[in-house]
Amino acid sequence: MPTLQPNSSPGNLLERANFGLHDAIEARVVSAFSREARILDVGCGTGAWLSRLAQRGFFNLSGVDLNVDQSRSSGLRVDCVNLDAPNWPAVAGGFDLITCIEVFEHIENPGQFLGNLANLLAPGGELLLTSPNVESLASRLRFLATGSLKQFDHLGDATHITPLFSYTFPKLLARKGLRIAERWSFPEGHRTLTSRSWVNWVTRALRIVIAEPVGGDNVCMRIVRV
Fold it and tell me: pTM of the predicted model, to two decimals?
């Protein structure tokens, strides 16, 4: 497998995401939201993403995670929340933006999880969600050859249990009063960072005859209320 460059935020906190993903999302958030926006990062880990936003002038920031010890050095407010729990009493709600970066794939009950996120959004608020892309041509090749999903097999994270499929996910969102307003890939275009070079070459050739609506390693979505 390719060797990926270690991730760290501007504050030198570990980023648990593909290299460059936080950079790409940061550019979108900075251009779309005021610095006064109330922002919640769900599954905030070390606090690396929130620290990025703080350095860009955002100040109404908070995070939730089950392991709050890992984020203590960030100096940001992080509440202890079991994301698989039916209710999150530690979180007041009313957020203009909720970010959920590489967390959905770890969740046991995705419907319950999305319902909690919907309840925490302010009127007009948005959810920014990313997850491993199991529908790229590289992923489909892996499934064809091995019967297993890329980033969910023995080579991926052992805690990845919930793949996101584009043909069922909108139905699940609709049950919670949500819809996808925008969808894009990371990296932009159809290249992947987690595949061998020959896989990228083969998938380039396959795109001549097989559609790939969203390529890349991660699918990214901007989600709003219906």
Answer: 0.89
Residue 120 · residue 95 · CB < 8 Å: yes
Beta-carbon contacts of 85 under 8 Å, excluding residues fewer than 6 positions away, are: none
User: Cβ(71)–Cβ(65) under 8 Å?
Assistant: yes
Instruction: Report the mean per-residue pLDDT for the chain.
Output: 89
Residue 166 phi/psi, 5° resolution? -65, -25
20-34 tens-digit pLDDT: 999 999 999 999 999
Domains and CATH numbers, the chain: 21-134+160-194+214-225 (3.40.50.150)
The two tokens of residue 178 are 């949500």
Q: Output the CA torsion sign for 216, 109, 80, 58.
A: positive
First to last CA, the chain: 41
